[in-house]
């Protein structure tokens, strides 16, 4: 009951502050969220390793930038949908810092998986971004990259943040409750900025729902994730699993490779106007990212096989590779009716 009462009190305070003044809400509520994150870093630093402090420190810096962007937006007396350039830049910087912090967290929990998770999230965001731009935005409002691309950039980055947090939570069933707070906070920010972007592209200057309150609630959840008591427990890195792509990854790669021709086909069938610049951007970026992801998987698998067959200290072939080579040599000798010799070399005091 106390937690529910606290949540209701925070929500009521946010709604009251946004009703009085957007600047006051961003200053007070955002300041409280930043203070909670700073206190959480200071309190939990003795329970965690330096890698934890670095990861969550970068995430907290991202929160500071996002809150500063919201405050600057209110001070400039510009509608939230217009997104003044300084406020937009601060928000983009905050989202980029959050993505960097999430990649560090993924690398800390499972080394070697951060780049794959990042590529998967970016491919998903770009595929969705291209489909919306080609099938909804350009046919309805024309091609105006100077205003359309910046307004769609913030929700695209926050979609990547949500996807990376999902990858972080899916690595293991044992993860701090703070990850759920982080997911909820990023989801609130994504919904808020996605609706803002849609309203801005539709030419509307107001929203029927209190989006400022939703955005500040997301900032509070973001700050609360750093302060949550579950951060006092140090979780070990997740054991490495098979590097084979899962079915969701396979479906994602197939969808990413088919989204450009599928979108062009839908435009032709529905009679929607198309833009060469948008088609060129999508046909260049998405296949390049898919090829990059596949190359990363090939090199990562090759490196894993080398580590499995060679000694980490000397680089000499280990027992696994010796057994495979011996089996292949025995089969070849028996097939060709040839002899085979094995030399055993024993070195003193060398295990």
Give the topology string: H per helix, E per strand: HHHHHHHHHHH
Major sheet size, sense and barrel closure: none
Low-confidence stretches are 76-83
Name the structural class. Answer: mainly alpha
Mean pLDDT over all positions? 80
For the terminal residues, how far apart are their CA atoms?
A: 61 Å
What amount of the residues lies in strands?
under 5%
Rg, rounded, reads 26 Å
Number of helices: 11
Helix content: over 70%
Task: Find the count of extended strands (DSSP E, 2+ residues).
Answer: 0
| Global morphology | flat
Brief characterization of the structure:
With 351 residues, the protein is mostly helical. Helix content is 75%, strand content 0%. It is flat, with a radius of gyration of 26 Å.
What's the SSE blueprint?
Elements (H helix, E strand, L loop, with lengths): L1 H19 L1 H23 L5 H26 L9 H25 L4 H28 L3 H26 L7 H24 L9 H17 L19 H24 L5 H34 L9 H18 L15
Helix pairs in contact: 1-2, 1-8, 2-3, 2-8, 3-4, 3-8, 4-5, 4-6, 5-6, 5-9, 5-10, 6-7, 7-8, 9-10
List descriptors.
351 residues, mainly alpha, flat
Tell me about this structure.
The protein has 351 residues and is mainly alpha-helical. It contains eleven helices and no strands. Helix 4 runs parallel beside helix 6. The longest helix is centred in the last third of the chain and has 34 residues, at 276-309. The chain is flat, with a radius of gyration of 26 Å.
């Amino acid at each position: 009951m106390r937690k529910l009462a606290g949540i209701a009190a925070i929500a009521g305070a946010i709604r009251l502050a946004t009703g009085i003044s957007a600047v006051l809400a961003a200053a007070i509520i955002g300041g409280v969220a930043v203070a909670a994150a700073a206190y959480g870093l200071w309190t939990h630093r003795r329970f965690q390793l330096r890698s934890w402090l670095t990861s969550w420190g970068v995430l907290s810096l991202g929160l500071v930038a996002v809150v500063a962007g919201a405050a600057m937006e209110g001070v400039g007396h510009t509608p939230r949908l217009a997104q003044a350039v300084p406020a937009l830049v601060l928000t983009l910087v905050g989202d980029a810092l959050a993505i960097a912090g999430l990649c560090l967290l993924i690398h800390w929990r499972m080394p070697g998986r951060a780049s794959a998770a990042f590529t998967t999230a970016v491919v998903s965001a770009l595929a969705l971004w291209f489909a919306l731009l080609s099938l909804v935005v350009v046919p309805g409002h024309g091609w105006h990259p100077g205003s359309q691309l910046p307004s769609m950039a913030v929700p695209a980055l926050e979609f990547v943040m949500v996807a990376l947090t999902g990858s972080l939570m899916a690595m293991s069933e044992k993860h701090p409750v703070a990850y759920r707070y982080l997911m909820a906070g990023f989801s609130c920010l994504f919904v808020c900025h996605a609706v803002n972007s849609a309203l801005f592209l539709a030419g509307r200057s107001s929203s029927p729902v209190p989006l400022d309150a939703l955005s500040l609630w997301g900032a509070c959840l973001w700050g609360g994730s750093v302060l949550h008591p579950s951060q006092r427990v140090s979780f070990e890195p997740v054991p490495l699993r098979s590097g084979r792509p899962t079915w969701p990854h396979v479906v994602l790669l197939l969808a990413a490779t088919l989204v450009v021709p599928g979108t062009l086909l839908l435009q032709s069938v529905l009679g929607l106007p198309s833009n060469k610049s948008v088609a060129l951007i999508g046909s260049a970026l998405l296949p390049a990212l898919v090829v990059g992801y596949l190359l990363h998987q090939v090199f990562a698998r090759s490196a894993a096989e080398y580590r499995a067959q060679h000694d980490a200290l000397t680089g000499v072939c280990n027992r696994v590779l010796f057994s495979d080579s011996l089996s292949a040599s025995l089969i070849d000798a028996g097939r060709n009716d040839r002899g085979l010799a094995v030399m055993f070399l024993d070195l003193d005091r060398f295990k």
